[in-house]
Design goal:
By secondary structure, the protein is α/β, with parallel strands linked by helices. Helices cover 31% and strands 34% of the residues. It has 7 helices and 15 strands. The model has no long low-confidence stretch (mean pLDDT 86).
Length: 233
């Protein structure tokens, strides 16, 4: 699996140089941002594996952002200031690289980040990140029973609280198929392990999930959903 990296730095030239070094190390640059606010939005939208994060930026610092991220993405600080190292490692960052960033040190830092992701298993389970105010929350997909398309956003509910993300349902369907998520309606994606019953009512059908949610099933998909529920998971 290619490591997906986002770069956060307020200097465009620094972002371009880091992008070149990331690609030379065999990883993929999936986005960049110039401040912590834009970075939080980027992370919620693209869910990178690793973020290369500057410390001093306009507005909130990189350390403040890292404290709000939780376990994902893995943070590697890239900064010109050595005096922030203690605060940075308090955020459980994988590494702290001083500018100008040495290519070999960056490659080793990315390798450590990849090892941390692999150890977090099982099976490199993907996570969903959702922004709530200034906080970016991270959820393992096994905790989510259902995704619902809502105009420009996709919503899901955990512990009675609704969260919204920008990733469209079609993208989630492709990304999460290996983890048991199936489309049951043009606006509904469901984790089959969380289904407790398929109920038919005349021409209509719905799924009952283990958290009490009821999900409509489109008529054209009922037969396929029934076969999927009857097959080994």
């Amino acid at each position: 699996m290619t490591l997906r990296v986002a770069i956060v730095d307020d200097e465009p030239l620094a972002r371009r140089r880091l992008a070149t070094l990331v690609e030379r190390a065999g990883a993929e640059v999936v986005g960049d941002a110039g401040d912590a606010e834009a970075a939080a939005e980027l992370i919620a939208r693209i869910d990178p594996d690793v973020i290369l994060l500057d410390v001093r930026m306009p507005g909130r610092s990189g350390v403040d952002l890292a404290r709000r991220l939780g376990a994902r993405p893995v943070v590697v600080f890239t900064t010109a200031y050595s005096e922030h190292a203690i605060d940075a490692f308090d955020t459980a960052a994988a590494d702290y690289l001083l500018k100008p960033v040495d290519p070999e040190k960056l490659a080793r830092a990315l390798a450590r980040a990849a090892a941390r992701i692999a150890a977090a298993g099982p099976g490199n389970e993907p996570h969903i990140t959702a922004r709530s105010g200034e906080v970016v929350r991270v959820f393992p997909v096994r905790a989510i029973a259902r995704f619902t398309a809502q105009h420009k956003y996709t919503g899901f509910i955990i512990d009675g609280a609704e969260h919204l993300i920008d990733e469209p349902l079609a993208s989630l369907e492709e990304r999460l198929a290996a983890w048991g998520f199936v489309r049951v309606h043009r606006a509904e994606l469901v984790q089959t392990a969380r289904v407790r019953a398929l109920r038919s009512r005349g021409d209509a059908a719905e799924l009952e999930l283990d958290d009490g949610q009821r999900v409509p099933v489109s008529r054209r998909l009922v037969a396929a959903v029934r076969r999927r529920l009857q097959s080994p998971r």
